[in-house]
Amino acid sequence: MFRIKKLDIFVTRQFLLLFVGTFFICQFVLMMQFLWKLVDDLIGKGIAMDILAQFFWYMGLNLMPQAFPLAILLSSLITFGNLSESSELTAMKAAGISLMQVFRPLIIVCAFIGIGSFYFQNHVGPKATMKMAQLLVSMRQKSPELEIPEGIFYDGIPNCNLYVEKKDMDTGKLYGIMIYRMTGSYEDQAIILADSGMLQATAEKKHLLLSLWSGEWFENMRSQELGGTASVPYRRETFTQKQIVLNYDGDFNLADAGGLANKARGKSIGRLAHDRDSLIHVYDSIGRGIYNDVKRGFYSMPTMSKEDSAKAFAKAESEPFNLDTLMERMTPDRRLQAVNNTLSRVKTQEAELEFRSLITSDGDKQIREHRIEVIQKFTLALTCLIFFFIGAPLGAIIRKGGLGFPVIISVIVFIIYYILNMTLGYRMAQKGLWTIGFALSLAPCVLLPTAAFVTYKANNDSGVFNIDTYREILFRILGLRLKRNVVSKEVVIYDPNYEDDARRLQQISDDTKVYADNHHLLKAPNPIKVFFHYEPDHEIERINDELEAVIADLENSRDRYVIGYLNEYPRLSVKAHTRPFERRWMNIVAAIIVPVGLFLYLRMWSFRIRLAKDLRDIHQTNGKMIERIKEKAL
Does residue 299 have a pLDDT over 80? Predict the structure, then answer.
């Protein structure tokens, strides 16, 4: 029987507190990312604050299902990162509590969040999507706020291009005005020049009143309006003061939402299934009608009536005939004419089918969008659990809390998910390039094994994300080494045996000299021995073990010169100079692949040259160390 324990309450409280905070952070980031795309449609249009507040509210509701998985990922990372960093998770494991038992209450919480996300997408999300789309269309259709710039033509007023040389910000007066006005067509364009003017909106915000002083009006005249009795190309008028009324709708009008009724994102699952079946039925009927029309067209002539075409079609269906036999009975001229007529009709039918394909392709796209939206509602809810099983184990492995490293990991995981699901899968499914099931299952199929892998590693206390391990592997690949860092010990339990160490160092110097003379490390090695007849080098391994033993003993010295000499000893690579790989078959494969084998051969030769230098350094350092030990003995 499941019982709520204090540990469950403790872990759940830690998670929920972080989940609430990270949810609002994720919601804000997603809203800013979405708002950035629409900044041109919102800025400079004088939209009232209450309209913007409604738009932001519905935008937030629409983006909540996407914020849930990201908030779970980030909060679970921080929660278990904090528990691991403070050794609380270690204490739980020491008390016999497995990691999955710690996860248990949060799995239930995330499952409820996923169910809530699904319910939200199915009931609240569609209404919020429709409202947001209606407000967005209305804001795009709204006329921009009247703000006349200086020195450039302004086209925000319908049928006008307005140029202002200078503007007085205190009085609102305009100077050096030039207006290009076109009310109907290019035949009645007008150019208005004025020294100064004033532009004001009417009380109902439906028109603009333009007051001009000291100017001229040039306007083309329509010759047809004069009955053709006179030819007046333009009219010129000089004025001292003139007022012009311009059409300008400055109010916000809510657009009709009827055109948005077919949006798949604005429907629940029940309505999506119903409308999808209706669309399939309608476009299947259209497709059958097109097929029958085209089929009848092949058995009719342009001069035939509909009745004759129907009879010819029925006869062709009931009485099969052989086209080759008919062609053989024709004269060559009739045969050529029949071929040309057929080619002409085929090209006509092809053009007509291309035109009709626009209708059917639009229907296919709508049907795909309805299917995609149904699957998306389930996958978004499932992602809540997947992200938990990625975030929580990663937090336990990485052992870093706070908003630093967990944010980086969360962003990387979410970017991978976004690319696989939205950028790649959704668009490929929408365009019909991939099947819907494959495209939308791409992200879960990648993230589910990842979640299972990190959960398994965290449950087994694996060091898969141990930075030191990867740094060591990288150093081995690049052939890099860390220098010795021997420091004086504050507490020394026993002193080194200097006499024995000096004797052993002298023996090591003799052995290194003999080894260097016998192995000729500076010469190129035999490729056959390297790749096919490898023999282990036990002698250098013995020398290295003996040297490390002496160094370990001398680390207990209080003499600063001895400690300094110890840091001059190089770290020997005892295998890299013998062969590229440990396994024989890998060396053989590398030799067969010539470019790879050549690179590995040269790399191994460089290790031999480095070993020769290391042996000389050891010999020189041994000499200095022995001299220092003799001085201490005196």
Answer: no
Structure tokens at 215: 């100017």
Q: Please classify residue 485 by burial: count the beta carbons closer than 10 Å to its beta carbon, then call 0-12 exposed, 13-18 middle and 19+ buried.
A: exposed
Q: Hey, what are 205's tokens?
A: 């915000």
538-560 pLDDT tens trace = 899 999 999 999 999 998 888 88
- For residue 81, give Cα distances in angstroms to 53, 92, 268, 471: 37, 14, 38, 22
Residue 416's identity, in one-letter code, is I
Strand partners, 209: 200, 245
**Cα–Cα distance, 118 to 379 (Å, whole number):** 9
- The torsion of the CA quartet 62, 68, 70, 72, rounded to 10 degrees, works out to 170
> Is the distance from CB of 104 to CB of 420 less than 8 angstroms?
no
- Please give the structure tokens belonging to residue 611: 């070993």
Helix (H, G, I), strand (E, B) or coil at 97: coil
Element (H, E) at 341: helix 332-398
CB 66 within 8 A of CB 117: no
For residues 83 and 58, the answer to whether their CB atoms sit within 8 Å is: no
First to last CA, the chain: 79
The residues with which 190 forms a beta bridge, in sequence order, are 181, 219
Burial of 22 (0-12, 13-18, 19+ CB in 10 A): buried
Q: 425 with 446: CB under 8 angstroms? A: no
Task: Tell me the C-alpha distance between 449 and 444, whole Å.
Answer: 9
| Encoded amino acid at 193, one letter | L
How does 541-580 read in b/e, with b if 16+ C-beta sit within 10 Å? Answer: eebbeebeebbebbbbbebeebbebbeebbebbbebbbbb
pTM reported for the whole predicted model: 0.62
Q: How far apart are CA 299 and CA 314, in angstroms?
A: 9
Higher local confidence (pLDDT), 228 or 311: 311
> In whole angstroms, what is the distance from residue 209 CA to residue 245 CA?
5
Task: Give the type of residue at 241.
Answer: Q
Q: Please give, one letter per residue, the 3-state secondary structure of 11-79.
A: HHHHHHHHHHHHHHHHHHHHHHHHHHHCHHHHCCCCCCHHHHHHHHHHHHHHHHHHHHHHHHHHHHHHH
CA dist 483 to 468, 472, 603, Å?
Answer: 16, 13, 21
CA distance 370 to 316: 40
- Express each pLDDT in 68-111 by its tens digit: 999 999 999 999 988 988 888 888 888 888 888 999 999 999 99
